[in-house]
Write a structure and sequence with these properties.
Elements: H1 3-14, H2 19-31, H3 37-43, H4 48-59, H5 69-86, H6 92-106, H7 114-128, H8 134-147, H9 163-177
Helix pairs in contact: 1-4, 1-5, 2-3, 5-6, 6-7, 7-8
Length: about 180
């Protein structure tokens, strides 16, 4: 098991999704010969807290900067989210809530690519309450989940508005109408 996979499974476990890890372990028990120590240790436990402890101990063997969060871990998470969204296992609200939780658990929620994931949960709530256009939100969500198009992409040349600046502009436009 790579460290990126360990982070991926840890993030899912922290959000209450243990099935992916169990499937990985089941496949590894069949395919790996000899079994890696981490797979063997994980296979002997079915308590999520104990499994998280094992994953944390495994991850402590490497420097956090050696883990490819922004590409490998992110792509694993996005594949998981897209699979559950397109299959209908999770609806858009559940997916955006999960995105927010996952981003927070990375401790990278204010850096792309995790920042878009983090804010989509908030934006869904705002669209649901009518502060943003739901159709526009769904277009942005679909672009993100299908093509990984970031809402807060730092590589664009146009100046970015912060989340608070966008909210301020929204509130000003609401009060001007009244």
């Amino acid at each position: 098991m790579t460290y990126e996979y360990a982070v991926y499974f840890k993030l899912l476990l922290l959000c209450g999704y243990s099935d992916e890890l169990q499937n990985y372990i089941d496949n590894a028990l069949i395919e790996q010969n000899p079994l890696s120590e981490i797979v063997l240790e994980l296979s002997q436990n079915n308590n999520d807290k104990k499994i998280l402890t094992i994953l944390n101990q495994y991850l402590s063997n490497t420097d956090d900067s050696d883990i490819d969060y922004d590409h490998t871990v992110f792509n694993l998470i996005m594949d998981f989210l897209k699979k559950h969204y397109t299959s209908g296992n999770l609806n858009i609200k559940e997916i955006t809530d999960l995105m927010n939780k996952i981003a927070v658990n990375t401790n990278r929620e204010h850096e792309e690519p995790w920042q878009t994931m983090y804010y989509l949960g908030d934006f869904y709530g705002e669209a649901e309450e009518g502060y943003f256009d739901m159709a526009d939100f769904k277009r942005k969500f679909d672009a993100f989940i299908n093509d990984k198009t970031y809402i807060f992409n730092d590589t664009e040349t146009e100046p970015k508005l912060s989340f608070f600046q966008m909210c301020s502009m929204l509130l000003k436009s609401i009060f001007k109408r009244n």
